[in-house]
Fold Major facilitator superfamily (MFS) profile domain-containing protein.
Amino acid sequence: MDTESVGENPLCDERNMLLSRAKSSSKGAVLATCVSVLGTLSFGYCIGYSSPASYDLKSASNLSIRLSRSQESWFSSSLAVGALFGCIIAGPMVDGLGRKVTIIVGAIPFEIGWFLLICAKNHLMLYSGRIITGLGCGIETLAVAVYITEIAPPHLRGRLGSINILAVTSGQFLAYIAGFLFYWDWLSIIGSFPPALVLLLMLWMPESPRWFLDKNRKSDALKSLLWLRGSHLEIEEECRETEETLEQQRDQRMSWKEFITAPVVKPVLIGVGLLSFQQLDGINAVLFNAADIFSKAGIKEPKLASLPLTGVQLIGNMITLLTLDKIGRRIPLYSGALGMAASLIGLGVYFELYQTFSSITWLSILSSVSYCFFYSMSWGPVPWIVMAEIIPLRARGLGTGISTVACWVTLFLVTETYSTLAGALSNQGVMWFYAGLCFFAYIFVIIFVPETKKRSLEEIESIFRN
């Protein structure tokens, strides 16, 4: 075969050119994603902070900050209260101020909250610090998800969205390790660094091109696309497609009457359902029992109890990062729901039989690890990605706000009712109850959730219009 003729084959040259363009087009979007997820890393750190900080504060020598059992519960759940208000105000902010500016503004409550916790002299300062850092959590979870969805090219959107959730899990992992090494006040000092980096580095990142086009700022949108996609890729075509979609939506202003029409309300309700099931699938039931499960397995240090499970979640997140754009969104969601249900059934069997057969500790470890693995590959990252993808641009601020509110309300209710449920149903009953909810999540995905793999945001919107 004439190798020279193969090298000059125009089809090969075109393919190589496209691959080169695709590679160059991802660099800007990847960099902007990595900087923006420092906001959600801060969110994960706040979640992980609760366990080691509460453990230290329960035995604090200063009686004015020592926490009782009930005060410990409120110290942990007050984060969700602040996050609820954060995501309510984040919706109008991402529409009015822009995605980038909202991420920057969201870092400010983190710094204020951590300052209050570092200087805490009484319970009021502790609760206030948690609520205000929660405010930052609510803002960042919404704004970062929308920002990444809008800056990512279609072939990388799932992968870059997975980086967002990987950052959350990494933040938790960092908090658990730091909590083992440092006392709670130094743990608070460490928590103030990631949001400080957001304030510093996010200033140099581009705004979402779609937000610029929505505000009739085409020249700024083209500059942003050029930064994100690189000079080797045609950006006019992408800009034109987005403009056409926006033009169709500008015929009338978004009203509540229009908001409840099928093309808008259906994706919003799917987002609400996904983020609600994310919390109702039993993740907190597993984590709340981690200390008991792993102490029976020989890990006696309470601060290390959640570390193995968070490590498993990190591995699952990395696998999702590599595979989500290849296998799609639906397969991880419905297979993950069934895997989590089976794991929770196994945990329920363990709690049912442990008093009689103490040698089945292996079942609790296997079930807990497999549950966290399935969760981290499916219901941990994917609901946030799908929610940000399917809600149409003109309703994205309000729609993602409503979905995120549902997530935080559900998280608060699950956290506050777990002890009551465990008392009424026993530990095994709670596990089987959440296993049943996982099955309902499976049905929800099969019936309602569309596949969005490698589709442009404009193509996804057309699914609901048609």
About this structure: Confidence is low (pLDDT under 50) at residues 1-20. The chain is about 80% helix and 0% strand.
